[in-house]
Amino acid sequence: MLQELPDSGKNFEYTAESAELNEVLKDTLGENNFKVHLFVERLGNIWQATGQVMSQQDFQCSRCGADLKHSVNLTAREIIMVHPEMPRSGKNAKVNHSTELDPMSPDGLILHQPELHVGEFIRELIILNEPLKPLCEKPCENPYLSSQSPSQELPDDARNPFSVLKDFKLNS
Ligand SMILES: [Zn+2]
Q: What's the total number of domains in the chain?
């Protein structure tokens, strides 16, 4: 597939309406609309994929549990190398970019066959950029949380168990 690309590269567009990627992206994007643009071009023996993903993801706030929509707006550039004889089993191997590549350079993807699975590529891109702790953008609206604001906490003295002990001794 990669070898069949024209010298000028090729644009790929996918949306929820065009539906090619709906199945593979369902577990990350749910029912949210999406727009994926991918441009793949050949650079000598390697290929470069430049991608953009726009969508939304459904998360729950890790503080208050409220449902929230997280905007997905990603751009990525990845260098694709094809090494059919690499002795690794399994699927595509990611180059460890912290050691093998300059951190400013694009990410590297090594394929065993000159075939790019666009859906998996995009899905991985979205997952890698998911927030670890999704939070409400503004202070949480959950009433339970707002009743626990620091100003309403008990003063330090009252929370100190020894203050209770002290009172007890005085009274006995
Ligand atoms: Zn929240």
A: 1
Q: Evaluate whether residue 126 is within a structural domain.
A: yes
**Positions of E strands within 44-123:** 46-60, 67-82, 93-94, 107-111
User: Domain range holding 16?
Assistant: 2-139
Tell me whether residue 167 is in a domain. no
Neighbours of ion ligand 1 (CB under 5 A): 61, 63-64, 66, 136, 140
* Cα 91 to ligand 1 centroid, rounded to whole Å: 38
Cβ neighbors of 81 (< 8 A, separation 6 or more) are 45, 46, 108, 109, 110, 111
Ligand 1 centroid distance, CA of 47 (Å):
42
pLDDT given for residue 164 in this prediction: 53
Of 75, 90, 86, 10, the C-alpha closest to 42 is 10
**92-145: pLDDT as tens digits:** 555 544 444 444 556 788 888 888 889 999 999 999 999 999 998 888 876 665
Identify the pLDDT of residue 169.
54
3-state secondary structure of 162: helix
69 in any annotated domain: yes
| Residue 19 falls inside a structural domain | yes
The pTM of the full predicted model, rounded to 2 decimals, is: 0.68
Distance 144 CA to ligand 1 centre (A): 11
